[in-house]
Structure prediction request, 165 residues.
Amino acid sequence: MRDGDVACEALKMTCLEYAAVVLEQSLARWDKKIPAWGELHQAKFKHPVLTKTPFAFFSDRKLPLGGDRSTVNVGWYDPNDFSLLHGASYRQVVDLADMEKSRYIHPMGQSGHLLSPQYDNLLVRWQKGDYLAMQMKDYPRAESLVLEPIVSKINLGQDFSRWSK
Prediction:
């Protein structure tokens, strides 16, 4: 870019001058009252049934969210109005060396039931980028499934033709 860009040269300005013009044009739409990013860029959670009813006031949630398409906390947005189009929902960090250090978070809550206290109890934590510890040790379970590689059960000299059908 030190030698300039063909597109900018065609406009008879440097890339920095062009960037300044575009920035001024972008900011002009707010008439010097530039809103905070979170006022424009919000995560919206719409109830699958109630969102198109008067009950949407009780069921739907929205909150400011950082990020864009090139940040760790991805939040793609519509360039016309900056409304969030899609981003990360369930997030998980797994420590394979020590599973007890693994973490997760899910937006909204543990329940899809509108009247449950767990309907949206994780939303603010999700917004802040907090995580919950994954309980791995001594977690009660009804049954376990152990996956073993099939190669360990096969005599490598066997005929594999029955599996290729």
Q: What stands out?
A: The longest strand covers residues 42-45. The CA atoms of residues 53 and 161 lie 59 Å apart. The radius of gyration is 25 Å. DSSP finds five helices and seven strands in the chain.
